[in-house]
Design goal:
alpha/beta
């Protein structure tokens, strides 16, 4: 089985006597540097700290162990922004001993991120969730009161943070009243106690501002302030909340939800209250400015009073009053004249307008309209009577012409005759309608013939009545001014009032 340290390689102590702690430490350092000249380690960063000197100190850990690491300034300049607590990294370097503390550590020559640690993943997920819900919205953040009377503090009663807060608050503003809600700030159950302390102070009433926080520590130590229950308690607080967790480089979920973030608990106390000396100095400066302003104003008023006293108004007030009275009388006369002239001009305009309106008055318009309507009615009745007489004259002439055309005497005058049975007076239209021996009467244009039927049949009788064709005479012209009646097939002309 191999051993971690080979006894043969361990330098033996000096035989003269016991060695010092420094000598032993140097021998251990030599063994470590010889045994681990180069290491390549993977782990999660914790307690990451950039010193003001430029060197970087952090702890590399996993589930079973942890080891301190140092990154000198020359190599730290190449670090990326992604190197922070909770980030899983791969480091290369060598193992040595920090002799002042007697602890071994890795002196890192290079470092690169390998992945994100479990806590960092949880931090990012919760941050994204709460940000989507609007808990980080800048519009809802409230300003801190200028001069609070009571300050509530949620932190550990035994930690350094509460001592720093009390000391700074009392030093800057002695009358301030401090109400402490004790709570664990690390470990299991700490987040619930912190949230309960915030809720209790909110229900207590009379608290003007809250400080929630603790001192520095590793990501695990600060983790209660990254819990959702604490974030929602800060969001629901009716009192403005100042988050002061860890150091200036540490950020937690409570910092994003709170109304104001302070880098440290001491900085939070300085933000909450004003410095009494600064306020007194400001008041003194304001008092001095007020005194100077009052003196300057008094001097200006004194000078103005001297000017007023030297004015002739105060030396001869009666003359000034009389001159003002005379000016007032002149203005009154001018005003009366102006008013009279304006009223006269307006009265004349009104009379002209009244004359114009009389021409266009509704009664005159109505009388004119009535006269026009009556004249139009008379004209309509006259025209109607004339039109009726004309149309009826034309209609009567047309009907007289038609009757004249239908007169049987006119037909007989053209050589035709009409035969009737003497017994019945019925006009014969067919020869078969007559009976042999029956007496018939033939009507001519002049006179009539009486005869007896000797023969009746369908044919023409010799020597019987025969129709002589004659040219048709032209219709007799109608009366002067009358239109010739039109004869249309299947329709008789009718006289109407309006054609």
């Amino acid at each position: 089985m191999g051993t971690l340290f080979d006894p043969a390689k361990i330098p033996a102590p000096e035989p003269e006597g016991p060695e010092t702690v420094g000598e032993l430490t140097r021998r251990i350092t030599a063994v470590l540097e010889d045994s681990f000249p180069g290491v390549w380690v993977v782990g999660e960063i914790s307690n990451f700290n950039c010193h003001t000197s430029g060197h970087v100190f952090f702890t590399l850990k996993d589930e079973r162990a942890s080891i301190r690491c140092v990154l000198w300034k020359s190599n730290a300049a190449r670090l990326g922004r992604e190197i922070a607590d909770g980030v899983e990294v791969e480091v290369r370097g060598h193992v040595s001993v920090f002799e002042k503390q007697g602890s071994y550590q890795i002196y890192v020559s290079s470092i690169r991120p390998r992945g994100v640690g479990a806590l960092e993943v949880a931090f990012r997920k919760l941050k994204e969730k709460l940000e989507k819900e609007g808990l980080f919205d800048a519009a809802r953040k409230r300003p801190l009161p200028r001069f609070p009377r009571r300050v509530g503090v949620v932190t550990s009663p035994t930690g350094a943070a509460i001592r720093d807060i009390i000391h700074i608050l009392r030093r800057r503003w002695p009358p301030i009243r401090i109400v402490l809600a004790p709570a664990r700030v690390q470990g299991e159950g700490a987040a619930a106690e912190i949230a309960r302390g915030i809720e209790n102070l909110g229900r207590l009433g009379g608290i003007d501002v809250l400080i929630v926080g603790r001192g520095g520590g590793s990501l695990e130590d600060l983790w209660p302030f990254n819990e959702e229950v604490v974030a929602r308690a800060i969001y629901a607080s009716r009192v403005p909340v100042v988050s002061a967790v860890g150091h200036e480089t540490d950020f937690s979920i409570s910092d994003f939800v709170a109304d104001v973030r302070a880098a440290t608990p001491s900085a939070a106390a300085a933000l909450v209250v004003s410095d009494r000396r600064e306020v007194l100095a400001l008041l003194e400066a304001s008092r001095a400015r007020l005194a100077r302003s009052a003196k300057h104003t008094a001097d200006l008023l004194r000078d103005e009073l001297a000017l007023f006293a030297a004015h002739r108004f105060f030396r001869y007030p009666q003359e000034i009053v009389l001159s003002r009275e005379q000016a007032l009388e002149d203005l009154e006369l001018r005003l009366r004249g102006e008013m009279k002239d304006k009223w006269s001009a307006r009265w004349m305009r009104l009379e002209r307008a009244a004359g114009g309106l009389a021409k266009h008055s509704p009664r005159a318009r109505w009388q004119e309209a009535v006269a026009a309507v009556r004249m139009a009615a008379f004209r309509i009745r006259t025209a109607e009577r004339t039109l009726l007489e004309h149309r009826w004259t034309v209609a009567v002439s047309r009907l007289a012409g038609r009757l004249e055309d239908l007169n049987p005497d006119r037909v007989l005058a053209r050589g035709y005759s009409r035969t009737v049975l003497e017994r019945t007076g019925k006009t014969l239209l067919r020869a078969a309608d007559a009976v042999v021996g029956e007496v018939i009467r033939t009507h001519l244009a002049q006179g009539a013939l009486r005869s007896k039927v000797t023969e009746a049949g369908a044919g023409h009788l010799a020597g019987g009545l025969a129709r002589r064709e004659e040219p048709q005479k032209a219709p007799r012209p109608a009366a002067r001014g009358a239109k010739t009646p039109s004869r249309r097939k299947g329709r008789d002309s009718q006289a109407t009032l309006f054609d």
